C-alpha cells in the first residue's frame, strides 16, 4: 500500500525552482517524491492548526 499524495501538494512541489540532478535528488539529498510524501503527511496538520 503506497502513501496517497495530496493533489494540493503535488503541483507546488512540481513548480519548485530547486535543481534536481539526473538521479532525481538535489544538493541536500532530497527528491521531489520525498517532498511530496512529507508535505502530504503534514498537510492535514497544517490545515487544522494554521489559520491565516
Characterization of this structure:
The protein has 52 residues and is mostly helical. It has one domain. Helices cover 50% and strands 0% of the residues. It has two helices and no strands. α1 (7-14) crosses α2. The protein is elongated and about 35 Å long. 0% of the residues are buried. The mean pLDDT is 87.
Quick structural gist:
The protein is mostly helical and 52 residues long. The protein has one domain (7-49).
Major sheet summary line? none
Determine the N-to-C terminus distance. 34 Å
In percent terms, what proportion of residues is strand?
under 5%
* Count of alpha/pi helices: 2
How would you state the average pLDDT, rounded? 87
Question: What structural class do helix, strand and pairing data support?
Answer: mainly alpha
Round the Cα radius of gyration to an integer and report it. Answer: 12 Å
Sequence of secondary-structure elements: HH
Percentage of residues assigned to helices? 40-55%
Query: Strand tally, please?
Result: 0
Number of domain modules: 1
Can you tell me the residue ranges where pLDDT is under 50 for at least 5 consecutive residues? none
> Any idea what the shape is?
elongated
What's the layout of helices and strands?
Elements: H1 7-14, H2 32-49
Helix pairs in contact: 1-2
Task: Describe this protein with a few key phrases.
mainly alpha
